[in-house]
Amino acid sequence: MQTPEEKKAFVREKFSAISHKYDFLNSVLSMQIDRYWRWYTTRQLKEFPDGAVLDLCAGTLPLSLELTRQAPARQVVSIDFCEDMLRAGVRVLPDDKRRPRIMPVCGDGEKIPARSGSFWGITVAFGVRNLARTQDGLNEMHRVLKLGGKLLILEFSRPKNCIIKPLYSFYLNKVLPRIAGLISGDKEAYEYLASSIAGFYEPTELMTMMKKAGFAEVYCRPLTFGIVTVYVGVK
Ligand SMILES: C[S@@+](CC[C@H](N)C(=O)[O-])C[C@H]1O[C@@H](n2cnc3c(N)ncnc32)[C@H](O)[C@@H]1O
Known about the structure:
- There is one protein chain.
- Strand 6 (216-223) and strand 7 (228-234) form a beta hairpin.
- This protein has helices at 4-18, 22-29, 33-43, 62-70, 83-91, 134-144, 164-184, 187-198, 203-212, and strands at residues 53-56, 76-80, 102-106, 119-125, 145-156, 216-223, 228-234.
- Helix 3 packs across helix 4 and helix 7 packs antiparallel against helix 8 (187-198).
- Strands 3-2-1-4-5-7-6 form a seven-stranded mixed β-sheet, sandwiched between helices.
- It is 45% helix and 20% strand.
- It contains nine helices and seven strands, in the order αααβαβαββαβαααββ.
- It binds S-adenosylmethionine.
């Protein structure tokens, strides 16, 4: 059993090890459906086209890019505690008008380096599952949102459909770690992906935690047979 500090160190090290191949593997392993998931999540912030948005656990910045693509006046602060992931993202940022609107910051999602009430929106794509102290992270997200601001969490969930469930489980546990291990050179990182999805909260549990952090109007929507779920909450 890992302590929270051990989990943090493990997660940071694993993402650092795969940072150079993360985007490529994401596209291949999800057959590019991840683009739709990020597009859908970002669309839920359309009522805040020009307010500052925090992209937490931003990694190589794919969601930060989508946030700036969908709203040309939007400023995004992109926080991640793995510098190598941010660096890999910055290296391939397109040289267009989006670039100056993305500000990468190395920081911890459980102690967000921002003043209370700073953002109109927060997005967290595939990051909440990696937090060592989920409730602390959610409390912090609530703190840094403005009153009326919106939190969007995009996270893996477990499909319930009796045909999809065994197929997905086989893919996630047997196929994916092998392919990803070969390409990234770190099979353990993708075994962690499968085990962290298996061990993650049920959507109802995560929504209860969001409410405990102070969020209102909390609901969730499963996408792609429930392989992922988008959670929404308002401060
Ligand atoms: C699966 S990646 C997701 C990256 C990106 N959001 C995306 O859509 O692909 C998860 C990211 O969460 C980051 N992370 C995990 N725990 C964190 C924490 N406590 N604070 C900040 N970032 C964290 C990792 O470094 C990693 O880059």
